[in-house]
Amino acid sequence: MKDAGARILRGGAFKPRTSPYSFQGLGIEGLKILKEVGEETGLATVTEVMDQHDVEAIMEHADILQIGARNMQNFPLLVAAGKTRHPVLLKRGPSATIDEFLLSAEYVLSQGNPDVILCERGVHPLDRTYTRNTLDLSAIPVIKEISHLPVVIDPSHATGSWKYVPAMSRAAVAAGADGLLIEVHPDPKQALCDGPQALKPEVFARLMADIRRIAEAIGRV
Ligand code: PEP
Ligand code: MN
Question: What CATH number is given to the structural domain containing 111?
Answer without folding.
Answer: 3.20.20.70
